[in-house]
């Protein structure tokens, strides 16, 4: 094996293919990433969930060798994210939410361009081009200008260009932003296919429903990793409070009534109903029933449910904000 080639863990290994410790990135006094640590296993779909500005894109750009960390250490495909960035770039695929395509080029010309950028061997170029065209469903549009494609077509073309060189790791930064739900679902089918072939996928998103598709998930807020685990573990282990689903008349008005109840920690609109979070489910249910009846709100159903990732996310953020507020109130 050439010294320039990484030593990848064997298929099925639990050895991490991405690993970071106390990673930080500062822009002046602002900490975009504030000491995150995690590891990603080979073949895993690993997600970073968080609002815009949480530090997701900054983290992924450091892992791709596009930004230099302020502090901390990390390795991607066996290479150091500070000293061996050029080697990392040969072993990864990277797709941003802007798709990084050239609109003035045709579909085929974009594929040819990225084949050259990624140094795809001449003997493999034709086969890889056919694969991208087939995967993206663009066989009949190979000579169309990329600017003429819909968002969903551009998305699949960008994914194909990112994996032309068959990298073992694929970084996707908000890849489904701005596309319709059907295109988003089709895109995730492609991610599952790549993962099944052994490709490690690291994806950032702010869509709660997409987070459910990941094998493991890190929740990021204000540059910090505030929770890490499988979607199931996050919903069952990271939220001690009960969640009550409330279907009632005039939910917008009812929410204000329930928020005033001392036994209810928080209330949020969810679909056509409400989710109420409380420490004591039985006591909260009794109080909610009484309050809705007194306010003239017809109650169709109230039921304790397994928290959604959105419930967990909101609860973790509320707890973090409360802790930060308490620290600010302590006399210095």
What is the terminal separation in angstroms?
58 Å
CATH homologous superfamily grouping of the largest domain: P-loop containing nucleotide triphosphate hydrolases
Q: Biggest sheet, in brief?
A: 6 strands, mixed
CATH topology type of the largest domain: Rossmann fold
Strand count: 14
H and E string:
EEEHEEHEHHHEHEHEEHEHEEHEH
Percent strand equals 25-35%
Question: Would you tell me the overall average pLDDT?
Answer: 89
| Poorly predicted spans | 1-12, 326-332
Shape: globular
Describe the structure.
This protein is α/β, with parallel strands linked by helices and 332 residues long. It folds into two domains: 16-230, 3-Layer(aba) Sandwich (Rossmann fold), CATH 3.40.50.300; 240-306, Alpha-Beta Plaits. The protein has eleven helices and 14 strands. The chain has helices spanning 56-63, 85-89, 107-117, 122-136, 151-162, 181-196, 208-211, 231-237, 251-259, 281-294, 309-329; strands spanning 16-27, 30-41, 45-49, 71-76, 79-80, 92-95, 169-173, 200-205, 216-221, 224-229, 242-248, 266-270, 273-278, 299-305. The protein has a six-stranded mixed β-sheet, sandwiched between helices. A four-stranded antiparallel β-sheet has the order 2-1-4-5. α6 (181-196) links the parallel β7 and β8. It is globular and about 75 Å long. The chain starts with 15 loop residues before the first strand and ends with a helix.
């Amino acid at each position: 094996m050439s010294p320039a080639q990484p030593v990848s863990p064997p298929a099925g290994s639990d050895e991490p293919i991405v690993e970071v410790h106390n990673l930080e990135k500062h822009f002046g006094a602002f900490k975009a990433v504030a000491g995150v640590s995690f590891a990603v296993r080979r073949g895993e779909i690993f997600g970073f969930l968080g609002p815009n500005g949480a530090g997701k894109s900054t983290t992924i750009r450091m892992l791709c060798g596009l930004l230099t960390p302020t502090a901390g250490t990390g390795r991607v495909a066996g290479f150091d994210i500070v000293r061996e960035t050029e080697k990392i770039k040969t072993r990864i695929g990277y797709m941003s939410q802007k798709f990084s395509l050239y609109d003035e080029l045709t579909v085929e010309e974009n594929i040819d361009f990225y084949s050259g950028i990624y140094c795809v061997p001449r003997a493999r170029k034709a086969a890889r081009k056919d694969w991208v065209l087939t995967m993206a469903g663009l066989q009949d549009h190979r000579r169309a200008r990329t600017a003429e494609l819909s968002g969903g077509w551009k998305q699949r073309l960008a994914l194909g260009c990112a994996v032309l060189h068959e990298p073992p790791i694929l970084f996707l930064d908000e890849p489904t932003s701005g596309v319709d739900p059907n295109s988003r679902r089709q895109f995730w089918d492609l991610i599952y296919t790549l993962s099944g072939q052994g490709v490690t996928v690291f994806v950032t998103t702010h869509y709660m429903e997409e987070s459910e598709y990941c094998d493991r998930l890190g929740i990021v807020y204000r540059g910090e990793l505030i929770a890490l685990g499988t979607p199931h573990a996050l919903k069952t282990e990271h939220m001690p409070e009960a969640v009550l689903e409330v279907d009632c008349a005039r939910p917008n008005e009812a929410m204000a009534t329930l928020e005033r109840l001392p036994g209810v920690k928080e209330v949020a609109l969810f679909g056509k109903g409400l989710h109420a979070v409380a420490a004591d489910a039985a006591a909260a249910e009794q109080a909610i029933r009484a309050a809705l009846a007194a306010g003239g709100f017809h109650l169709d159903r109230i039921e304790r449910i397994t928290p959604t990732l959105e419930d967990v996310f909101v609860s973790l953020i509320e707890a973090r904000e409360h802790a930060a507020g308490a620290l600010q109130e302590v006399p210095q």
